Amino acid sequence: MPRILGVDLPNEKRAHVAxxxxxGVGPALAKRILGELGIRHDVRAKxxxxxxxxxLASHIEKNYAVEGALRRQLMQNxxxxxxxxCYRGLRHRRGLPVRGQRTRSNARTRKxxxxxxAGKKQAPKK
Amino acid sequence: MSRSIKKGPxxxxxxxxxxxKQSKAGTRNPIQTWYRRCTIIPEFVGHTFMVHNGKTFVKxxxxxxxVGHKLGEFSPTxxxxxxSKKEAAPPAT
Lengths: 126, 93
Prior knowledge:
- The complex is a heterodimer.
- By secondary structure, chain A is mainly α.
- Helices cover 47% and strands 3% of the residues of chain A.
- The mean pLDDT of chain A is 87.
- Helices cover 14% and strands 14% of the residues of chain B.
- Chain B contains 1 helix and 3 strands; from the N terminus they run αβββ.
- Chain B has one helix at residues 13-25; strands at 31-33, 48-52, 57-61.
- Chain B has a 3-stranded mixed sheet, covered by helices on one side.
- Chain B is globular and about 55 Å long.
- Chains A and B meet through helix 4 and helix 5 of A and loops of B.
Protein backbone atom coordinates (compact mmCIF):
# COMPACT_ATOMS: atom_id res chain seq x y z
CA MET A 1 0.00 0.00 0.00
CA PRO A 2 1.64 3.25 -1.08
CA ARG A 3 1.99 5.85 1.63
CA ILE A 4 2.04 9.58 1.00
CA LEU A 5 2.59 12.03 3.86
CA GLY A 6 1.57 9.44 6.42
CA VAL A 7 -1.66 8.44 4.69
CA ASP A 8 -2.26 5.05 3.13
CA LEU A 9 -3.60 5.16 -0.39
CA PRO A 10 -6.04 2.41 -1.32
CA ASN A 11 -4.46 -0.17 -3.63
CA GLU A 12 -7.27 -0.74 -6.06
CA LYS A 13 -8.28 2.85 -6.81
CA ARG A 14 -7.09 4.82 -9.79
CA ALA A 15 -4.39 7.36 -9.02
CA HIS A 16 -6.61 10.46 -9.24
CA VAL A 17 -9.14 8.91 -6.88
CA ALA A 18 -6.54 7.52 -4.51
CA UNK A 19 -5.04 10.98 -4.00
CA UNK A 20 -8.36 12.30 -2.72
CA UNK A 21 -7.83 10.19 0.40
CA UNK A 22 -5.50 12.96 1.51
CA UNK A 23 -7.19 15.66 3.58
CA GLY A 24 -7.26 18.76 1.43
CA VAL A 25 -7.04 17.01 -1.93
CA GLY A 26 -10.26 16.69 -3.84
CA PRO A 27 -11.02 15.42 -7.33
CA ALA A 28 -9.98 18.66 -9.04
CA LEU A 29 -6.72 19.13 -7.18
CA ALA A 30 -5.83 15.45 -7.56
CA LYS A 31 -6.11 15.70 -11.33
CA ARG A 32 -4.11 18.91 -11.39
CA ILE A 33 -1.30 17.38 -9.35
CA LEU A 34 -1.09 14.36 -11.63
CA GLY A 35 -1.10 16.65 -14.64
CA GLU A 36 1.71 18.75 -13.26
CA LEU A 37 3.86 15.68 -12.74
CA GLY A 38 2.87 14.01 -15.98
CA ILE A 39 1.55 10.88 -14.28
CA ARG A 40 -1.38 9.07 -15.90
CA HIS A 41 -4.73 9.28 -14.10
CA ASP A 42 -5.78 5.75 -14.81
CA VAL A 43 -3.01 3.75 -13.21
CA ARG A 44 -4.04 1.96 -10.04
CA ALA A 45 -2.41 3.20 -6.85
CA LYS A 46 -0.59 -0.10 -6.37
CA UNK A 47 0.97 0.22 -9.83
CA UNK A 48 2.60 3.58 -9.11
CA UNK A 49 6.36 3.21 -9.03
CA UNK A 50 8.30 4.15 -5.91
CA UNK A 51 9.81 6.97 -7.88
CA UNK A 52 6.38 8.37 -8.74
CA UNK A 53 5.23 8.08 -5.13
CA UNK A 54 8.25 10.02 -3.94
CA UNK A 55 7.69 12.66 -6.59
CA LEU A 56 4.04 13.01 -5.62
CA ALA A 57 4.84 13.30 -1.93
CA SER A 58 7.46 15.98 -2.32
CA HIS A 59 5.44 17.90 -4.90
CA ILE A 60 2.30 17.97 -2.75
CA GLU A 61 4.16 18.86 0.40
CA LYS A 62 5.99 21.70 -1.29
CA ASN A 63 3.11 23.30 -3.15
CA TYR A 64 -0.13 22.62 -1.30
CA ALA A 65 -1.36 22.81 2.25
CA VAL A 66 -2.74 19.37 3.07
CA GLU A 67 -3.35 17.17 6.11
CA GLY A 68 -1.85 18.60 9.32
CA ALA A 69 -0.66 21.84 7.79
CA LEU A 70 -4.11 22.56 6.38
CA ARG A 71 -5.85 21.69 9.64
CA ARG A 72 -3.46 23.96 11.50
CA GLN A 73 -4.12 26.77 9.05
CA LEU A 74 -7.87 26.42 9.58
CA MET A 75 -7.51 26.45 13.34
CA GLN A 76 -5.32 29.53 13.14
CA ASN A 77 -7.86 31.38 11.02
CA UNK A 78 -10.57 30.63 13.54
CA UNK A 79 -8.47 31.50 16.56
CA UNK A 80 -7.53 34.79 14.92
CA UNK A 81 -11.23 35.65 14.67
CA UNK A 82 -11.67 34.69 18.31
CA UNK A 83 -8.72 36.73 19.45
CA UNK A 84 -9.69 40.00 17.83
CA UNK A 85 -13.14 39.79 19.35
CA CYS A 86 -15.12 40.38 16.20
CA TYR A 87 -18.66 39.16 15.62
CA ARG A 88 -17.60 36.06 13.73
CA GLY A 89 -15.18 35.20 16.53
CA LEU A 90 -17.93 35.49 19.12
CA ARG A 91 -20.12 33.13 17.12
CA HIS A 92 -17.29 30.61 16.91
CA ARG A 93 -16.79 30.82 20.67
CA ARG A 94 -20.43 30.17 21.39
CA GLY A 95 -20.69 27.36 18.85
CA LEU A 96 -23.41 29.09 16.90
CA PRO A 97 -23.69 29.59 13.13
CA VAL A 98 -21.22 32.21 11.95
CA ARG A 99 -22.71 33.42 8.71
CA GLY A 100 -26.01 34.88 9.78
CA GLN A 101 -28.18 31.77 9.56
CA ARG A 102 -31.30 31.52 11.66
CA THR A 103 -31.06 29.91 15.06
CA ARG A 104 -34.67 29.91 16.10
CA SER A 105 -34.94 26.54 14.45
CA ASN A 106 -32.42 24.26 12.81
CA ALA A 107 -28.70 25.13 13.09
CA ARG A 108 -28.23 21.67 14.63
CA THR A 109 -24.89 21.11 12.94
CA ARG A 110 -23.36 23.90 14.97
CA LYS A 111 -25.42 23.58 18.11
CA UNK A 112 -25.21 19.81 18.46
CA UNK A 113 -27.95 17.53 19.76
CA UNK A 114 -31.09 19.22 21.05
CA UNK A 115 -31.10 20.17 24.70
CA UNK A 116 -34.76 20.13 25.55
CA UNK A 117 -35.83 22.56 28.23
CA ALA A 118 -38.87 21.57 30.22
CA GLY A 119 -41.47 24.00 29.03
CA LYS A 120 -45.01 25.01 29.78
CA LYS A 121 -47.52 22.37 30.66
CA GLN A 122 -49.86 21.42 27.89
CA ALA A 123 -53.35 22.88 27.96
CA PRO A 124 -55.47 20.74 30.27
CA LYS A 125 -57.95 18.43 28.57
CA LYS A 126 -61.63 19.15 29.03
CA MET B 1 -22.05 38.82 -1.63
CA SER B 2 -18.77 40.53 -0.96
CA ARG B 3 -17.87 43.94 -2.28
CA SER B 4 -16.27 44.33 -5.69
CA ILE B 5 -12.49 44.68 -5.49
CA LYS B 6 -12.63 47.27 -8.23
CA LYS B 7 -14.25 49.74 -5.86
CA GLY B 8 -11.76 49.24 -3.09
CA PRO B 9 -12.66 49.19 0.59
CA UNK B 10 -15.29 51.62 1.80
CA UNK B 11 -13.87 54.06 4.31
CA UNK B 12 -15.54 57.10 5.79
CA UNK B 13 -13.46 60.14 4.72
CA UNK B 14 -14.30 62.08 7.87
CA UNK B 15 -12.96 59.28 10.01
CA UNK B 16 -9.73 59.10 8.04
CA UNK B 17 -9.30 62.85 8.45
CA UNK B 18 -9.74 62.54 12.20
CA UNK B 19 -7.27 59.69 12.44
CA UNK B 20 -4.70 61.58 10.40
CA LYS B 21 -5.13 64.65 12.55
CA GLN B 22 -4.45 62.55 15.62
CA SER B 23 -1.49 60.79 14.05
CA LYS B 24 0.08 64.12 13.21
CA ALA B 25 -0.59 65.51 16.66
CA GLY B 26 0.66 62.26 18.17
CA THR B 27 -2.40 61.90 20.36
CA ARG B 28 -4.39 58.72 20.73
CA ASN B 29 -7.71 59.87 22.09
CA PRO B 30 -10.70 57.62 21.55
CA ILE B 31 -12.69 58.67 18.51
CA GLN B 32 -16.43 58.47 18.93
CA THR B 33 -18.11 57.24 15.81
CA TRP B 34 -21.32 55.88 14.41
CA TYR B 35 -19.60 54.62 11.24
CA ARG B 36 -19.93 50.91 11.93
CA ARG B 37 -19.77 50.23 8.20
CA CYS B 38 -16.33 51.80 7.85
CA THR B 39 -13.57 49.33 6.91
CA ILE B 40 -10.54 49.32 9.18
CA ILE B 41 -7.52 50.40 7.17
CA PRO B 42 -3.87 50.04 8.22
CA GLU B 43 -3.74 53.71 9.20
CA PHE B 44 -6.21 53.00 12.02
CA VAL B 45 -3.91 50.54 13.80
CA GLY B 46 -3.08 51.67 17.30
CA HIS B 47 -5.99 54.07 17.55
CA THR B 48 -8.97 53.62 19.78
CA PHE B 49 -12.51 54.04 18.56
CA MET B 50 -15.74 54.32 20.44
CA VAL B 51 -18.09 52.47 18.14
CA HIS B 52 -21.78 52.99 18.62
CA ASN B 53 -23.85 49.84 18.97
CA GLY B 54 -27.22 51.53 18.88
CA LYS B 55 -27.19 52.30 22.57
CA THR B 56 -23.73 52.96 23.90
CA PHE B 57 -20.23 53.39 22.56
CA VAL B 58 -18.01 50.33 22.75
CA LYS B 59 -14.31 50.92 23.10
CA UNK B 60 -12.36 49.22 20.31
CA UNK B 61 -8.59 49.27 20.29
CA UNK B 62 -7.52 48.49 16.73
CA UNK B 63 -4.75 45.95 16.27
CA UNK B 64 -3.04 44.80 13.12
CA UNK B 65 -5.20 41.68 12.86
CA UNK B 66 -8.37 43.74 12.60
CA VAL B 67 -7.41 45.38 9.30
CA GLY B 68 -9.98 44.56 6.65
CA HIS B 69 -12.84 44.07 9.08
CA LYS B 70 -15.54 46.66 9.67
CA LEU B 71 -15.70 48.71 12.84
CA GLY B 72 -19.17 47.39 13.56
CA GLU B 73 -17.92 43.82 13.85
CA PHE B 74 -16.32 44.71 17.16
CA SER B 75 -19.33 46.35 18.73
CA PRO B 76 -22.09 43.78 19.29
CA THR B 77 -25.60 45.14 18.89
CA UNK B 78 -27.47 42.40 20.68
CA UNK B 79 -27.44 41.35 24.29
CA UNK B 80 -28.25 37.79 25.16
CA UNK B 81 -28.13 37.03 28.83
CA UNK B 82 -29.41 33.48 28.58
CA UNK B 83 -32.86 32.06 28.73
CA SER B 84 -35.09 32.69 31.71
CA LYS B 85 -34.68 30.04 34.35
CA LYS B 86 -37.68 28.06 35.48
CA GLU B 87 -38.90 29.16 38.89
CA ALA B 88 -37.26 27.31 41.72
CA ALA B 89 -38.49 23.74 41.92
CA PRO B 90 -41.19 23.27 44.59
CA PRO B 91 -39.78 21.82 47.81
CA ALA B 92 -40.00 18.07 48.06
CA THR B 93 -42.85 16.87 50.25
